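I am hoping you can look over what I have pasted underneath with an eye to the fold:
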Amino acid sequence: MWQKIDKAQGPAYRQMMDQIMRKIEQGELNPGERLASERKLAEAFGVNRSTVVHALEELRALGILTSKQGSGRYVNQTEWGKFSIPRIDWRQLIAHRYEQSINHYEEKINRGKKQTSAFLDLYSSEMPNELLPDFQFPSYSLADILMEEKRMNRYGYLPLKEKITGYLKEELQLTFAADQLLVTGGGQQAIFLILQTILSSGDAIAVESPSFFYRLPLFKAAGIRLFGVAMDEEGIDLKQLETSILKNQVKAVLVNPNFQNPTGKVMSQKRREALVQLCRRYQLPIIEDDVFTDFSFSEMNEVQPLRLLDPDNVLYIGSLSRVLGRTTKIGWVLGPETLIARLANAQEMMEFSLSIVSQMLATSVFDEAFLSKMSLVRQQLVKRSQRLIDWSKEQTFFELHPIKGGYYAWLTWEGKQLSTEIADELIAQGLGIAPAQLFGEEVNGLRLNFSRLSEEELPKFSELMNQAAEMLKK
């Protein structure tokens, strides 16, 4: 009567619910009829009993089933008629987009912080507060704010756009018209707007692998399929990318060319030029996520932004969010005027537009010796990266990949994979790291946020990493 559950088709309890409801709709289960016991249903569906209980409780909450203590569960006689007409299955609509978006690993990290004193959080995607630039923000009166609102248009606050334009021209030699720049609520919002505008649900996009893009729920929310493409030391592998383009009908390529998250790699100039040529051939847009460019430990003269190589086909994303902390998200996207106009429309329709106050504060950042303060941040990052480099030379198990900028380090090793059990044990011991599995890659790798590692914490870090090495050895 029942089909075995195929876990590849989605959550088991939902498949059970669907089968039971289908039997009722088709008249194979009648109002008032009793269902088999939980044990028998578990055997019939090939699941554990807790899954059966979950499914039956969901159906009871919907009014489709009733329960009688000591007697079992029945098809509801009085309420079923309400469900016999066609209806929207809201759970089904929501499930495939958001059900897998919950960051359970981050929840474990947060629990670890509460349960373990002096927890080493090297998992976080944020720099510690003491490394953030000491920007002094001006105070504004209501009259000031209302006056400045007159200098807003749908592309953003005009003084902020002018500051961003001057910064990109001076630092990256990027030149463009005013209507080619849109201010957004951070880099991730810029990506989401692009996905919503140029792609449809079910479309495919190619990304580097491993990649932090696998951590972003916005792809599931937009219904976009991600296909990872391996990297070598120069960046994304173009032979594999071309294969994926043809096989998976890829509609866009999304890359993080400077201090790639999580590996820290910088795409070579030769690879950048070849990537642009390949995407031109297949008429594919490139989305260039360049939020780490301000954290270079050396001059970046040897490489150019992809946008500079092909301004007609590259959408460039930048951000101030890394230096403004969690509370103020400011980003921008640079592209053809026609597309930027569409993105601005989408931003208005979704009510994503930034407040005038946030944009006024961001403008003041550029007014207040931004480049010199960023130089101080880089100096601190270089110092903290050196601590990790010195540690790596004192041990023989982990291989530390070159750190050229940003604040992430990538470690690999020869041995066992960093399983969920081992990661949980490290959290219990007081160490939070980001295993490669979080970035869509089943390899022996992990990411550390070295900006959060102070000199005083080095002994504890070394001890915990030695414990990790013992657990990961063959």
About this structure: The chain has 18 helices and 18 strands. The CA atoms of residues 40 and 109 lie 38 Å apart. The radius of gyration is 26 Å. The chain has three domains: 12-75, 104-127+372-473, 141-367.
